[in-house]
Design brief:
The chain is 0% helix and 32% strand. The protein is mainly beta. It has 2 domains: 164 residues, 3 Solenoid (UDP N-Acetylglucosamine Acyltransferase, domain 1); 35 residues. The strands form 4 sheets. It has a 9-stranded mixed β-sheet, with no helix packed on it. A 7-stranded parallel β-sheet has the order 2-5-8-11-14-17-20, with no helix packed on it. The two termini are 30 Å apart.
């Protein structure tokens, strides 16, 4: 890889030798990228963010300051993770076993959060694994996601519930008859049986 296309790692960041960083990816102050993690091209990992062992991020992902992406998370291209958001990986967390002995890596099974292309997770939101966040969905700041989120869904609250739809531009869609319209781009979407799909898929 040429110097012009190589990744940038700030001197205080901690990036494992076995992590793979795509072209032009940037790792900022005090961030940690663990063993075997794979980050695509043009990713931006903010101050103090954590990317767990073996986690996979697509191209163009943005992980904001102090967000925690625990393994085995899988993020599609263009995913946004807001400041201090958390993607968990333990369904039944405990520090010790019933006999009082400390839990080890062999005493539990990690499960991951999967996030589709273009989706965004708001600041301090928590996604409880194993859940899947659909493409272009938007999880509001502070939400706690305990169930799968459909493509283009806007979810808020604790636990998170769908309150509307968003388009690829991230703005809430406006209903126009049996269709939904993005007020920014004019893109149109159709809802059938609780599933929204773009009428002009990219």
């Amino acid at each position: 890889m040429s110097a012009a296309h190589s990744a940038f790692v700030e001197s205080t960041a901690d990036v494992a030798d076995s992590a793979h960083l795509g072209a032009r990816t940037r790792i900022w102050h005090l961030a940690q990228v663990r063993e075997g993690a794979t980050l695509g091209a043009d990713c931006n990992i903010g101050r103090g963010a954590y990317i767990g062992p073996g986690a996979v991020l697509g191209d163009g992902c943005k992980v904001q300051n102090y967000a925690l992406v625990y393994e085995p998370a899988r993020l599609g291209d263009g995913v946004f993770i807001g400041p201090a958001a958390v993607l968990t990986n333990d369904e039944f967390p405990r520090a010790i076993n019933p006999d009082g002995s400390p839990k080890s890596a062999d005493d539990w099974h990690s499960v991951g959060v999967t996030i589709g292309r273009g989706a965004a997770i708001g600041a301090r939101a928590v996604c409880i694994a194993p859940v899947t966040i659909g493409e272009w969905a938007l999880v509001a700041a502070g939400a706690v996601v305990t169930k799968d989120v459909p493509d283009f869904a806007l979810v808020v609250g604790v636990p998170a519930r769908r309150v509307g739809w968003v388009g690829r531009a991230g703005r809430p869609l406006e209903q126009d008859g049996d269709e939904w319209v993005c007020p920014v781009s004019g893109d149109r979407y159709r809802e059938r049986d609780g599933v929204l799909s773009a009428m002009d898929p990219d």
